[in-house]
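Human: If only I could read backbone structure tokens as easily as an amino acid sequence. Take your time, and here it is.
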Amino acid sequence: MIGYNLSTKQTPQRRQVDKVMVAEALDISRETYLAILMDRACNGPVIVGSPQGGVDIEEVAEKTPELIFKEEIDIFEGIQDSQALRMADNLGFKGPLRQQAADQIKRLYELFLKVDATQVEVNPFGETPEGQVVCFDAKINFDDNAEFRQKEIFAMDDTSETDPIESEAAKYDLKYIGMEGNIACFVNGAGLAMATCDIIDLHGGKPANFLDLGGGVKESQVYQAFKLLTADPKV
């Protein structure tokens, strides 16, 4: 696989594979879905689970919303044993696996807090034929604002997987996201930047980027922002 181009839903631009992670091969007897994420509507973390795992959770929510279960977590009280056990029940874990699953859910919540995550998604969260509850595959998103206390985690960031312009912009504390158009956007304020992109699109144009200078911008940042925009061959 190394050295070949891989095209999936997560890699639409056919990126070359430079490294792989090798893990122990395990048989799965049953798959469920579990995620812990920040929910603004609830003003805190929420545990989301479904007994249908190993598939796209959005598809499950659309076709069988009754199979989506949620537990709102009080950020001050933390996850309660009753909540972890109730989620284990909703996911269909029986007998000794019920307590195993609840313990795993509580540990995942501890991880969520410890690493300043915005999302911990385990899919599948399942069981083996030998009767073990296992996080077979996981995805974690980290809060960029927590970089100052999660230096070891952010040091592992593989910049080869990031747009070079985005990586360069981050060095100067500029919020840049590359897009497919040819009209450069240079805006002070995230809301205004999004509105500018919308207006360009509304009138038939295509923005080449989202660029937010943010508050308290310095002259050096303005200079670097112009350099980044003019370096984009699409503009």
The chain is about 30% helix and 25% strand.
